[in-house]
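To fix ideas at the outset, we first show an illustrative case, written as a sequence plus integers encoding its fold:
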Amino acid sequence: MNSPLPPPHAPVTSSGGTALVADPAALALRAVHRAMAELRRGTPVLLTDADGALVLAAAETVGAPGLAELASLAKGPALLLLAPTRAEALLQGRTVPTEPAIALHLPPGLLDPARLRSLADPTAAELPPDGARTAPAPPLAGAALALAKLARLLPAVIAAPVDAPSLVDAAARLGLLRLDAAAITAYPGTAATSLRRVAEAPVPLDLAAATRLVAFRAADGGIEHLAILVGAPEERAAAGGAPLARIHSECFTGDLLGSLRCDCGPQLRGALARMAAAGDGVLLYLAQEGRGIGLVNKLRAYQLQDRGLDTLDANRALGYGADERNFLVAATMLEALGIRRVRLLTNNPDKLQGLAACGIEVVEREPHSFAPNGVNDDYLATKARRFGHLLG
């Protein structure tokens, strides 16, 4: 007789039998962070909820060993789960259901690591998959794609249902991580609100000599976000004032290399210069490259842009939304700094709304636009036309 399935985060006991109490939210964060790492290295993950279980692996990273582990657990055929925009492109006009995730049943010849990578990646030269057909998406399909996106992988996973009673033995035998789907939904908000100051130091800059860097880290130990403090904006805030602030998503190509494809470098340096001239300010430098899709996927989006797509459609072709950023991160950092009222340097209405929704008062919007450079003209035009940025 099969024993009931225990919760993914059952209490651990010491050698003396005493239960070691752990914060459930912290345990869930840790589990999601580990699951992201497993997907990135090509290892399958067991995803569960009250209604069922799914074994899944990222299509762009899984290798032959991972596919073999997945097949050994599956109680039915493996499905390729894709974002609707990617499925539409692959099926070239065939009807795609209006679902958060689209499931494709693949013939055995396509269950190969190289073919799966090419089916996941719109920058690959890939013909429509012969013999592929749509299938009902499993209940956990949306959570599976959300986990891939959190890992900054292409939202494309190979997945199969699993008999729940077999999960305990299977996980022990293969060493696979088991994750509650609810933890994936909660992760962005929980990670953002768990941010804590972990280090700070004065770092004089050529644009602003009186500058400090404050590093923030979430409870899962993930990538750090930085607050760049020019002067003493906390003192202005404590006196009831509203310092200049900017939410700036990291941009390796623009900020560090001086890429002409975007306006990120000028925006970063311009914001610091304005804060120095004003006497103080805070720039939140968030680890949300490429509007939250990550550097690797941003480079893929550049390839698609070079084939004629704009920035919004390129992100959608990859399976991502137009903007995947989480502005609760910025609000949590400002709260930790004691800054609850700001004059925001931005052209993006979403940032105004995002901060306000998280309890930060934006007393004024400070325009922050820069002239086109001859390379980024279409990029800036797309910002205004399709994202609603206030560049006029």
